[in-house]
């Protein structure tokens, strides 16, 4: 018996990994976060799977299901939104499984922050603009953010930031960012990335609050900020430049020298 923590991806049913889909199709018991994972994702499950929505269950109730699966020698697919490693609430489950002597495995998934970048058609890292991405969130009732990880302190780096759960504290979040990012800094709100009702709003830090209604962005919203989101051209990466060489490709200059040496040797 084994528990598989599977990243369901950001929402679209076809953004689960092949491995995740295969394991869902074989597991006799499935636990999924119904508040965040769309019901369409359950189409990957086997027809006779026993399915439980964990939005309605506390941790003790979920542990009871793991205990029963252990007694019945049934594998369990535990379906989490996005990637289980990011705000997945998996650690406490894993510790309980270890105490019960139940083996588990983690299957990575597509995170909503990469789905948001895809929706924007943006690369989050750009040469000489930002080579770092800060993933953080606003504080919530279920889990507070440590003071040392405040949005204001991260903003001082002026790297690309992806802020989860930002919709309910949008005004304060913008105020914290404005301590360090200029008003003209590009920002974007992405709600329910990859879902059929996905919403996107592009703006600048100084204008965004005047353009949106906070009530429209309360749940499952990511706020992305940073110069990397700019539509304007910038410095191109040297990776594919004609003169850039590496172990897999000669640059134009090296090719010319090699051709010249070959001619000399043939002569």
TrEMBL record:
Annotated GO MF terms: precorrin-4 C11-methyltransferase activity
UniProt keyword terms in alphabetical order: Cobalamin biosynthesis, Methyltransferase, S-adenosyl-L-methionine, Transferase
PROSITE patterns the UniProt entry points to: SUMT_1 (PS00839), SUMT_2 (PS00840)
Pathway recorded for this protein: Cofactor biosynthesis; adenosylcobalamin biosynthesis
Gene3D superfamilies named among the record's database cross-references: Cobalt-precorrin-4 Transmethylase, Domain 1, Methyltransferase, Cobalt-precorrin-4 Transmethylase, Domain 2
Pfam family of the protein (one): TP_methylase
GO biological process, one term: methylation
Enzyme class: transferase
EC number(s) recorded for this UniProt protein: 2.1.1.133
Limits of the Tetrapyrrole methylase domain: 2-207
Family per record: Belongs to the precorrin methyltransferase family.
Name of protein: Precorrin-4 C(11)-methyltransferase
Gene label: cobM
């Amino acid at each position: 018996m084994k528990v598989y923590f599977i990243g369901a991806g950001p929402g679209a049913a076809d953004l689960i990994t092949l491995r995740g889909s295969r394991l869902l199709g074989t597991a006799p018991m499935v636990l999924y976060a119904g508040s965040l994972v769309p019901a369409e994702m359950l189409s990957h499950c086997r027809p006779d799977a026993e399915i439980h929505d964990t939005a309605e269950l506390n941790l003790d109730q979920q542990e009871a299901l793991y205990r029963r699966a252990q007694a019945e020698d049934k594998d369990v697919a535990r379906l989490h939104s996005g990637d289980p490693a990011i705000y997945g609430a998996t650690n406490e489950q894993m510790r309980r499984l270890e105490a019960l002597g139940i083996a588990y495995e983690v299957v990575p998934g597509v995170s909503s922050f990469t789905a948001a970048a895809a929706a924007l058609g943006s690369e989050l890292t750009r040469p000489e603009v930002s080579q770092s991405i800060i993933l953080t969130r606003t504080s919530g009732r279920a889990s507070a953010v440590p003071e040392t990880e405040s949005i204001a302190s991260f903003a001082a780096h002026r790297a690309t930031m992806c802020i989860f759960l930002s919709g309910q504290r949008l005004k304060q979040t913008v105020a914290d960012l404005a301590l360090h990012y200029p008003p003209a800094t590009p920002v974007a709100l992405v709600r329910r990335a990859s879902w059929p009702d996905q919403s996107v709003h592009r703006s600048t830090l100084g204008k965004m609050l005047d353009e949106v209604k906070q009530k429209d962005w309360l749940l499952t919203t990511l706020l992305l900020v940073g110069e990397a989101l700019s539509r304007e051209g910038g410095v191109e990466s040297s990776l594919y430049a004609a003169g850039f060489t590496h172990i897999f490709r000669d640059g134009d200059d090296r090719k010319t020298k090699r051709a010249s040496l070959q001619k000399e040797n043939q002569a």
